[in-house]
């Protein structure tokens, strides 16, 4: 059977705009969209990369298959001359969307760390081998006992001047390296983070290059114990590993020495700090924000298309059941999430562009913008991963029973993105970093100093009441978020001050204010996201696109206010009547966006292969494909499962029954 | 790894000494008496001495192995039940030692009860002994590809053929295929199939039919049947949720379960009696699901709270050692709302059990079913509210355990995945809230026209709240004034129901049909239902704490939790409360101050409060939540059992990585 499901067809016909035009805005121009589609077409002809979907494989098969594909992609990347960034990603997505690569950290962490922290000679030696894949590396930082709080890592690297070597050790159980991706089985080298001891003194955490496995037979090197940490919530294709080190000796020049050196005789010196480390973090967090946006966009695509073809409930006069997308509750579950995915998308784009802009400035020695950018990236990473994780859940639950079958594609999305709440900085800790920055700025503003642009609003109270009225008024929305952020920052600062005045230490006061601090940081971040979205509306675009994008943007802004109404009502900034008006306007927006819902998710332009969802198929032929999909279940390999002979049959009491039919 | 009598982690040890009450006594209370605690422990100890129930390696099992182990466990329980002549309660105690969802359970829990409920005496005499002996293994086949919640839309047909006195069961469309029934794919050889009965060319609605689907001897599918597993899901790996397609399958006339509806030989359909009791069963099942919420949330809390007291991360001061993460206010704010809520859920489930029993008694003694609509509305809303909260809670607790929470060895991923279906089964939560809302709107209408309401929990609908303002002006008053706190909840619930009622009427006045008006107000209806249930939960929790038979120490601790539950609810939903003028902004600031104080009051009791759940180590099956707190050792041990570590070099190295250099 082919053709598009008629309900979906109708949805597309009644859209008021051309999805492709919005696609071009989302992907940064028509040319990039064409390039992406060309790469996808290349991939479609690559039969070698295809395989059994991971979900039907055992853990060890899934890992093995992922290694096979990863190696294959390297070949294809070279063959088609695909770039390292989005280009190879688009290619991979067609076969292994949301599957964590078992060699991914080589390019994302291992090589960049060598390039960023190594001396010219080290880059020449190790960087070249890594680029040529003569070695395969990863980045071993997190330990069993420590993730977030790096200063307390326990692995040691003790310098021995007599042999000019470092001796690496895992002195306690908790010092076991635990979680680094690709470490357990795949890689043969790692950048290891360890406490440097020289001449009896500890100099803090530094990076060392360690060969973990033989380049010949891949066996672990003497003194190195390696393994896989076991199954996780998702990430089956990644051999997140553990490593214990027992008196492992490495030459002195395997400490990455661009910013800190240990001389032959063990004298430690430091040459400045790497601002680049911060910049790398900014970059990684920008990527996470973007990943979140894309993942949520996929979730919305699945849920909205499925809600257009799913009919359920009391039939109308003609005996036809309603599309579930017509229920207000369903719209209320899905459309704000759609708006959120757009908002995060634009915020992620902004971060990426700003990163590119700033990295060129930094190369010219200008680092003024780094602190605010660093804080913003931490906040965005936390904000976007929290939201994405909970919004995806909502999308999945909006798909009823079929949502929680792996066929829906939701589970893959969810288990892939939820850990983003934790990795690269646990979200609460991230928000507290943002708060620290905000407190500092607020304090400075009190002394009359001028603040960087992004936090300029902290200087003083700007607005007394919310000016949102019926109809779209975007400045009022932005101001409302700005005011709330200001108020929460101010309140947290005042609470800190009063606690300290009452004799609490700074640390105690901080902890006793931390819930409020997280809320303030959240409000600041959300203000930024709303503002960024509103600014997108100023770009050049056709009136049809502008109209629908403005509706989506307004929904995002108003929904946030309604959902967190308490924090806007509490100081009377929004009045009770006004809040009701905003609630009603929100409902109006749901109805306005409803006819364009399918076209909006179509604009994300996910290929069916990348979306990898039976419920979210572009053609809407869900039911027959669910049936096809189920045939791959391992339990269906035999008609009668072997456990029948082992357990069920012997249970029958009366074996005498000769007839096989009742 | 040697499991020497391990020392308890000193931090955990210290936590246990700061608890202000006797943990064992609270355990007895939760179990319903010391005798029941003792019996539960006896059964648990027996169960976990049997190798079949050792789940330590279950996280490494393939889908097929999980399925097979699930079956083996069920069979073992069946044998034990026979061997020890266990009464039903004991069998249930044994079943709760299984951390798996298994299709075979549904044979006992749904298939057999359905026959008991809907079958005539002759039908029961015929089928029940066969089911008891497992000659007949059954699934309950209701949900289809195209329909779950809206039962009347099911498409499977059973057409009566007078000439042969048989029904012809048919899946007329693609979307009519049975899809999702547990235990259907591989395990069962029979089903109770729900189908549209057609006789004499007339559709007589949904009826239940017993249909053989697999050969009793070979277990192969019978002619006209295609049956199989629907593939992997989130959680429930050991359950063979199945699909089933009927292609002109004939069953004899007496395979239709005929207690309430009949088809005579010549095809005449008739109804007899009343199946209101079916609703009674629904209430009971919802109460059970609330019990499942409690069970799962207690497990997640045990893991997260114990781990948070063992885990040390970051320093507040450089000179001091690292902090227990349980000392961070942000961590407490993630954990304690659920610790408080889980006790509120426990009280709610107790109340619902009592109400159900009272109702059944009333039915049996006097045929009185008056309270059914109320009970139905409350149990619907409570099921939705408690399962939503539990699912959210497990997710937050998982993330509150940092990276290690994501390890399956933590036990949390499985808890999360396995709980998810609870928000959908026995009524999708949104639909359930709307049932509560429908009842609330009706009751509000009665109250407005001066009529009585169905229960005292709805009395607030009859009161005038317009001029009420909250009198509290100090933290102390706010903490201790139960009446004033409940008034805030009442006023909020009243405000929301009145608001949506007004909107509904204005929609109708604008000329909308009642259905369209209803649809245009769905979001607000749900908010109103949630506010009512929230009030009910808080009110019931206070009443529960006051009336529960226990020691002063325990009551005091439970009261702190109850106060936090109430205060946190106001703070979390502050928008509602402000908008309904339940309190002033200044009072909200007080609420937040009390909230912070209560976090600190709960803190020293946190570990004892989860210890009181008394979850057996093998049942918890979590490296992070172990009683002795030797978390890191347990993680290492778990990794050592990982099959991926059986070989030093994984085969994929030779196959894929080794040739890498040559190829590039």
Explain what you see.
The complex is a heterodimer of chains A (662) and B (664). With 662 residues, chain A is an alpha+beta fold. Chain A is 53% helix and 9% strand. Chain A contains 21 helices and eleven strands. In chain A, helix 8 packs antiparallel against helix 11 and helix 10 runs antiparallel to helix 11 (410-417). Chain B is of the alpha+beta class and 664 residues long. Chain B is globular. Chains A and B meet through helix 4, helix 9, helix 10, helix 11 and helix 12 of A and helix 4, helix 9, helix 10, helix 11 and helix 12 of B.
At a glance:
Chain A is an alpha+beta fold. Chain A has helices spanning 6-13, 19-26, 30-44, 59-80, 86-96, 104-117, 120-131, 275-309, 328-363, 370-397, 410-417, 427-446, 474-501, 506-536, 543-563, 565-569, 576-593, 597-603, 608-611, 622-630, 642-651, and strands at 137-140, 156-160, 165-169, 177-178, 189-198, 201-211, 224-228, 241-245, 248-251, 260-262, 268-270.
C-alpha end-to-end distance of chain B: 43 Å
Radius of gyration from the alpha-carbon trace of chain A, in angstroms: 28 Å
Shape of chain B: globular
The biggest beta sheet of chain A is recorded as: 6 strands, mixed
Look at the structure and give the mean pLDDT of chain A: 93
Q: Largest contact between protein chains? A: A-B, 138 and 134 residues
Helix amount of chain A: 40-55%
Uncertain stretches of chain B:
none
Q: What is the strand content of chain A?
A: 5-15%
Strand content of chain B: 5-15%
Mean pLDDT of chain B: 93
Helix content of chain B: 40-55%
Any chance you could write out the topology, listing elements then pairs?
The complex is a heterodimer of chains A (662) and B (664).
Chain A: H1 6-13, H2 19-26, H3 30-44, H4 59-80, H5 86-96, H6 104-117, H7 120-131, E1 137-140, E2 156-160, E3 165-169, E4 177-178, E5 189-198, E6 201-211, E7 224-228, E8 241-245, E9 248-251, E10 260-262, E11 268-270, H8 275-309, H9 328-363, H10 370-397, H11 410-417, H12 427-446, H13 474-501, H14 506-536, H15 543-563, H16 565-569, H17 576-593, H18 597-603, H19 608-611, H20 622-630, H21 642-651
Parallel strand pairs in A: 1-5, 2-5
Antiparallel strand pairs in A: 2-3, 3-9, 4-8, 5-6, 7-8, 10-11
Helix pairs in contact in A: 2-3, 2-18, 3-5, 4-5, 6-7, 8-9, 8-10, 8-11, 8-18, 9-10, 9-14, 9-15, 9-17, 10-11, 10-12, 10-14, 12-13, 12-14, 13-14, 13-15, 15-17
Chain B: H1 10-18, H2 23-31, H3 34-47, H4 63-84, H5 88-95, H6 103-118, H7 121-132, E1 138-141, E2 157-161, E3 166-170, E4 178-179, E5 190-199, E6 202-212, E7 225-229, E8 242-246, E9 249-252, E10 261-263, E11 269-271, H8 276-310, H9 329-366, H10 372-400, H11 412-419, H12 429-448, H13 475-480, H14 482-509, H15 514-520, H16 522-547, H17 552-572, H18 574-579, H19 585-602, H20 606-611, H21 617-620, H22 631-640, H23 651-657, H24 660-663
Parallel strand pairs in B: 1-5, 2-5
Antiparallel strand pairs in B: 2-3, 3-9, 4-8, 5-6, 7-8, 10-11
Helix pairs in contact in B: 2-3, 4-5, 6-7, 8-9, 8-10, 9-10, 9-16, 9-17, 10-11, 10-12, 10-16, 12-16, 14-15, 14-16, 14-17, 16-17, 17-19
């Amino acid at each position: 059977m082919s053709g598009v499901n008629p309900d979906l067809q109708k949805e597309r016909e009644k859209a008021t705009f051309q999805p492709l035009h919005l696609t071009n805005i989302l992907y940064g121009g028509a040319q990039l969209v064409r390039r992406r589609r060309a790469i996808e077409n290349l991939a479609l002809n690559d039969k070698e990369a295809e395989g059994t979907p991971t979900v039907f494989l055992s853990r060890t098969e899934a890992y093995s298959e992922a290694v096979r594909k990863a190696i294959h992609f390297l070949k294809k990347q070279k063959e088609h001359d695909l770039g390292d960034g989005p280009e190879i990603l688009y290619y991979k997505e067609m076969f292994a969307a949301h599957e964590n690569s078992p060699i991914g950290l080589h390019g994302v962490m291992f090589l960049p760390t060598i390039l960023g922290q190594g001396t010219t000679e080290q880059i020449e030696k190790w960087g070249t081998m890594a680029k040529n894949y003569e070695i395969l590396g990863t980045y071993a930082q997190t330990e069993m006992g420590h993730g977030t709080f790096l200063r307390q890592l326990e692995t040691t690297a003790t310098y021995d001047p007599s042999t000019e070597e470092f001796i690496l050790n895992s002195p306690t159980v908790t010092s076991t390296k635990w979680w680094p991706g690709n470490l357990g089985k795949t890689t043969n080298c790692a950048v290891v983070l360890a406490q440097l001891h020289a001449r009896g003194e500890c100099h803090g955490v530094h990076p060392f290059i360690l060969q973990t496995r033989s380049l010949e037979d891949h066996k672990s090197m003497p003194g190195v114990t390696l393994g896989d940490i076991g199954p996780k919530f998702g990430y089956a294709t990644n051999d997140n590993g553990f490593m214990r080190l027992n008196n492992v000796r490495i030459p002195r020049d395997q400490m990455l020495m661009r910013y800190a050196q240990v001389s032959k005789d063990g004298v430690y010196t430091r040459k400045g700090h790497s601002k680049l480390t911060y910049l790398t973090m900014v970059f990684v967090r920008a990527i996470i924000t973007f990943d979140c946006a894309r993942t949520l966009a996929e979730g919305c695509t699945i849920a909205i298309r499925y809600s257009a073809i799913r009919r359920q409930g009391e039939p109308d006069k003609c005996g036809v059941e309603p599309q579930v997308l017509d229920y207000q509750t369903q719209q209320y579950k899905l459309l704000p999430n759609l708006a959120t995915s757009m908002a995060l998308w634009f915020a992620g784009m902004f971060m990426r562009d700003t990163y590119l802009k700033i990295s060129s400035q930094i190369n010219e020695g200008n680092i003024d913008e780094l602190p605010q950018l660093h804080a913003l990236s931490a906040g965005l990473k936390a904000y976007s991963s929290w939201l994405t994780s909970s919004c995806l859940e909502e999308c999945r639950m909006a798909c009823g029973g079929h949502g929680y079958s792996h066929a829906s594609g939701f589970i893959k999305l969810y288990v892939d993105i939820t850990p983003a709440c934790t990795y690269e900085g646990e979200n609460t800790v991230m928000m507290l970093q943002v708060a620290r920055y905000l407190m500092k700025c607020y304090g400075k503003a009190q002394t009359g100093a001028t603040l960087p642009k992004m936090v300029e609003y902290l200087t003083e109270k700007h607005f007394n009441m919310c000016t949102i009225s019926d109809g779209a008024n975007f400045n009022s929305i932005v101001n409302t978020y700005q005011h709330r952020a200001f108020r929460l920052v101010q309140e947290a600062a005042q609470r800190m001050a009063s606690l300290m005045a009452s004799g609490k230490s700074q640390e105690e006061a901080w902890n006793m204010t931390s819930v409020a601090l997280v809320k303030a940081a959240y409000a600041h971040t959300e203000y930024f996201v709303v503002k960024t979205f509103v600014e997108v509306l100023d770009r050049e675009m056709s009136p049809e696109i502008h109209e629908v994008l403005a509706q989506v943007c307004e929904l995002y802004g108003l929904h946030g206010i309604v959902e967190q109404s308490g924090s806007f009502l509490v100081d009377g900034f929004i009045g009770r009547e006004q809040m009701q008006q905003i609630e009603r306007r929100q409902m109006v927006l749901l109805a306005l966006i409803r006819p364009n819902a399918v076209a909006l998710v179509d604009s994300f332009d996910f290929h069916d292969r990348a979306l990898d969802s039976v419920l979210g198929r572009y053609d809407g032929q869900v039911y027959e494909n669910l049936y096809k999909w189920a045939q791959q279940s391992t339990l269906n390999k035999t008609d009668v499962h072997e456990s029948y002979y082992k357990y069920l049959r012997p249970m029958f009491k009366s074996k005498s029954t000769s007839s096989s039919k009742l | 790894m040697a499991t020497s009598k391990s020392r308890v982690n000193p931090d955990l040890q210290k936590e246990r000494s700061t608890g202000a009450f006797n943990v064992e006594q609270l355990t007895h209370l939760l179990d319903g008496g010391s005798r029941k605690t003792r019996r539960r422990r006896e059964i648990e100890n027996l169960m976990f001495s049997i190798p079949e129930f050792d789940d330590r390696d279950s996280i490494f099992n393939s889908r097929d192995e999980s399925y097979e182990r699930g079956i083996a466990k069920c069979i073992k329980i069946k044998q034990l039940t026979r061997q020890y002549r266990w009464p039903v309660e004991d069998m249930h105690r044994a079943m709760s030692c299984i951390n798996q969802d298994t299709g075979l359970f549904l044979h006992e829990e749904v298939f057999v009860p359905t026959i008991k409920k809907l079958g005539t005496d002759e039908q029961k005499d015929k089928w029940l002994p066969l089911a008891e002996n497992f000659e007949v293994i059954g699934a309950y086949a209701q949900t289809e590809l195209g329909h779950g919640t809206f039962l009347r839309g099911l498409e499977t047909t059973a057409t009566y053929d007078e000439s042969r006195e048989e029904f012809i069961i048919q899946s007329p469309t693609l979307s009519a295929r049975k899809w999702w029934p547990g235990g259907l794919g591989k395990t069962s050889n029979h089903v109770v199939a729900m189908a549209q009965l057609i006789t004499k060319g007339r559709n007589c609605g949904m009826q239940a039919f017993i249909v053989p689907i697999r050969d009793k001897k070979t277990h192969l599918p019978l002619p006209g049947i295609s049956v199989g597993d629907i593939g992997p899901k989130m959680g429930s790996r050991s359950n063979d949720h199945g699909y089933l397609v009927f292609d002109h399958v004939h069953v004899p006339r007496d395979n239709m379960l005929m207690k309430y509806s009949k088809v005579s030989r010549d095809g005449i359909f008739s109804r007899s009696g009343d199946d209101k009791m079916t609703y009674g069963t629904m209430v009971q099942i919802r109460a059970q699901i609330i019990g499942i919420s409690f069970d799962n949330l207690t497990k997640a809390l045990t893991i997260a709270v114990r781990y948070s007291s063992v885990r040390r991360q970051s320093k507040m001061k450089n000179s001091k050692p690292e902090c227990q993460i349980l000392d961070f206010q942000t961590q407490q704010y993630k954990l304690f709302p659920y610790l408080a809520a889980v006790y509120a859920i426990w009280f709610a489930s107790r109340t619902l059990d009592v109400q159900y029993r009272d109702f059944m008694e009333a039915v049996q003694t006097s045929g009185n079913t008056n309270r059914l609509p109320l009970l139905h509305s409350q149990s619907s809303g409570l099921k939705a509210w408690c399962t939503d909260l539990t699912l959210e809670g497990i997710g937050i607790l998982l993330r509150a355990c940092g990276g290690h929470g994501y390890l399956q060895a933590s036990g949390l991923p499985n808890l999360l995945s396995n709980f998810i279906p609870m928000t959908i089964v026995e009524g999708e939560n949104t639909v359930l809230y709307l049932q509560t809302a429908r009842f609330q709107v009706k009751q509000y209408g009665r109250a407005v026209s001066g009529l009585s309401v169905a229960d005292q929990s709805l009395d607030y609908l009859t009161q005038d709240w317009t001029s009420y303002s909250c009198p509290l002006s100090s933290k102390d008053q706010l903490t201790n004034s139960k009446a004033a706190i409940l008034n805030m909840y009442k006023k909020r619930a009243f405000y929301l129901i009145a608001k949506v009622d007004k909107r509904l009427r204005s929609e109708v006045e604008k000329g909308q049909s009642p259905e369209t008006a209803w649809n245009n107000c769905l979001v607000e209806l749900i908010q109103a239902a949630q506010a009512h249930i929230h009030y009910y939960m808080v009110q019931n929790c206070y009443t529960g704490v006051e009336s529960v038979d226990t020691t002063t120490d325990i009551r005091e601790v439970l009261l702190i939790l109850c106060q936090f539950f109430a205060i946190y609810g106001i703070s979390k939903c502050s928008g509602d409360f402000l908008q309904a003028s339940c309190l002033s902004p200044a009072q909200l600031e007080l609420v937040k101050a009390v909230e912070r104080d209560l976090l600190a009051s709960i803190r020293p009791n946190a570990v004892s409060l989860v210890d009181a759940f008394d979850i057996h180590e093998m049942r918890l099956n979590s490296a992070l939540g172990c009683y002795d707190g030797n978390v890191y050792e347990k993680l290492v041990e778990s990794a050592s059992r990982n099959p991926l570590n059986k070989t030093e070099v994984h085969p994929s190295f030779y196959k894929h990585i080794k040739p890498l250099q040559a190829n590039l």
